[in-house]
Amino acid sequence: MKSIFSLLLIAFALWMQPLAAQNLSAEKLSAEFDRILSAEYKADGPGCTALVAQNGKIIYQKAFGMANIELDVPMRPEMVFRIGSISKQFTAIAILQLLEQGKLSLQDPITKYVPDYPMHGYTITLEHLLTHTSGIKNYTDMEEFGKIMRNDMTPEEMIAFFKNQPMDFAPGSAWNYSNSGYFLLGYVIEKVSGKTYPEYVEELIFKPLGMKNSLYGDDAKLIKNRAAGYQGGENGPQNALVLSMTLPYAAGSLQSTVGDLFIWHQALHAGKLVKKETLQKAFTEYKLSNGEGAHYGYGWFLGDLQGSATIEHSGGINGFLTDAVYLPAQDVFVAVFSNSEAKDPGTPATKIAAWAIGKPYSYKEMSLSEQQQQEYTGVYETESGEQRIISIEKGVLYSRRTGGSPFVIRAYEKDKFFFDESLATLEFKREGKQIVQVISSQRNSPTLVWKKTDKPIPVQKEVSIGEKELAAYVGRYELAPTFSITITQEGGRLFAQATGQGKNEVFAEKPDRFFFKVVDAQIGFFKNAAGQVDRMILYQNGQEMPGKKVQ
Questions:
Q1: Range of the domain at 430
Q2: Which residues contact 409 (CB under 8 A, 6 or more apart)?
């Protein structure tokens, strides 16, 4: 293996034009990739596989962490993952193949294939489904979805599950991610091709391309090198919740490896699946009826990374998170797959891609005096009234948005700050010497302007509650079928842990009202007629989410 990798590095050095200008050696680049991934994926925890290619050649392929923690199986690059919504690009290309064969039109109404689908007075086309502009409600956002997650269902049964939901908006007028749209596209593929969706992708895509480690999701089938999937738990990783793979269907049921995804990527751009002019339609931003761009084509997001255009998509499904980004100008492809819902590969993939094109996110912190830090503190607001609070705690500056967690910010230039845990930045603007606003920027997100107000920074005061009184709140409270908050006690301290998240201490501001310090949220406890605590309400983002005590 060492000799093969050395050959790759030698070959890489010969055609590494974008990086040569940056004086980055192949060894340094590989070391940076190692540093980024090893910081996120520890040797004894859930892991990842990663692949980086440039100019059509793989320059880096490694694995970190564990594929199966219970069996002590280390991760390997050839491990098979659920790829979640990266599946959507396979569905989109299947539709475009049928388009080229003259078997359908993107302007066909969905009632041509699902005659009884409610149109609510609109015309909903296949193109609306492809671009997430149909207005059809996303079935995975429905409260009832949690109750059917384990159930095997036919495509017809699943469509019946969501088809009578009210529309979110008029087709083409707005953009909202909808798994329902891609589920319907899978059904269209079946109706037009005469094959089931699993048969179509396996017979007409995977086999012809030699994607030997890719398949439609099947938990009953024995799959060599399948990685186990995890989610966060109270004491660390735990096995992910069961999900029938009939439910994601054409919106997210495929399984693959980073290596096979690169085979797919290469075949696409070589014109092996659809004509290049047809593929370009998939990579063209859809325009809404008001002329605004949707930042989405057919099965891919269209974004920007350090000034370079990207074609990308991520995936999230029980036990797994995936991310793949392509920068066409530099011909750089990056894929990172994680076998844990608590380990998002998006930021590592973005950092790796930035290094690969010679534009790394590399900030050097500059020190600020206490007086300089004080200049930035305050309450800032957008025109819509959302707040961003900049505060100091123990000599460190923090930024917290309405309903969010506080994040450390560090100065790298005068009035410019970066975040410890993301790629977002803040830039403060002055009139004379006075700071009057802050501008927040984050990749593929709208730039927001926050005006500084005269409002005081809110301060929550803690009150002392006895251990006996705290004990009455201990228990598990169900806020939704798949979401609960567990309250535990350690002496005079109370802790709350939401499903799939870590445990955080809550602090009393009243005998029955507690607040978090790690996020802008509060919990209220309530008693029944017998004087027993039987329910809670979670207050966050202006919403009240009640939960019944179930144990």
A1: 370-452
A2: 390, 397, 398, 399, 417, 418, 419, 420, 426
Which residue carries 């940076």 as its tokens?
32
Q: For 377, what's the count of Cα atoms within 13 Å in the CB-facing half-sphere?
A: 15
**Residues 158-216: tens digit of each pLDDT:** 999 999 999 999 999 999 999 999 999 999 999 999 999 999 999 999 999 999 999 99
Considering 298, 327, 356, which residue would you say is the last residue of a domain?
A: 327
CA distance 507 to 513: 8
Lowest mean pLDDT among 122-126, 203-207, 520-524: 520-524
The mean pLDDT of 520-527, rounded to a whole number, is: 90
Position 142, amino acid: M
Q: Specify the pLDDT at position 9.
A: 29
Q: How far apart are CA 493 and CA 472, in angstroms?
A: 13
Residue 88 one-letter amino acid: K
Domain shared by 440 and 471, yes or no: no
CA–CA separation, 57 and 80 (whole Å): 21
pLDDT at 503: 87
Task: Please report the beta strands in 463-531, taking only residues with DSSP state E, as ranges in sequence order.
Answer: 475-480, 483-490, 493-498, 503-510, 513-516, 521-527
Q: Are residues 476 and 448 in the same domain?
A: no
How many structural domains are present in the chain? 3
Q: What percent of the chain has pLDDT over 70?
A: 96
Q: Is residue 15 part of a domain?
A: no
Q: Is residue 29 part of a domain?
A: no
- How does DSSP assign 130-184, residue by residue? HTT-S-PPPGGGSTTHHHHTT----HHHHHHHHTTSPPSS-TTS-----HHHHHH
* pLDDT over 90 at 428, yes or no: yes
* Averaged pLDDT, 296-321: 96
And the tokens for 512? Answer: 């029955």
If DSSP states are collapsed to H, E and C, what string results for 376-439? HCEEEECCCCCEEEEEEECCEEEEEECCCCCEEEEEEECCEEEECCCCCEEEEEEECCEEEEEE
Task: Answer for the pair 523, 505: CB distance below 8 angstroms, yes or no.
Answer: no
Q: What is the pTM of this model?
A: 0.82
Res 551: pLDDT: 77
Residue that is written with structure tokens 């590095």 in the block: 9
Q: Is residue 363 part of a domain?
A: no
CA atoms within 13 A on the CB side of 345: 35
| Residue 49 and residue 258 in contact, taking contact as beta carbons nearer than 8 Å | yes
pLDDT in tens, 1-13: 333 223 222 222 3
Verify that 421 and 488 share a domain, yes or no: no
CATH of residue 226: 3.40.710.10
Helix, strand, coil % (nearest 5) of the chain? Answer: 25, 30, 40
Dihedral over Cα of 225, 231, 237, 241: its sign: negative
Q: Evaluate if residue 23 carries a pLDDT over 60.
A: no
Contact in structure between 488 and 505 (CB atoms under 8 Å): no
Q: How far is CA 421 from the centre of its chain?
A: 15
Whole-angstrom distance, CA of residue 325 vs CA of residue 231: 24
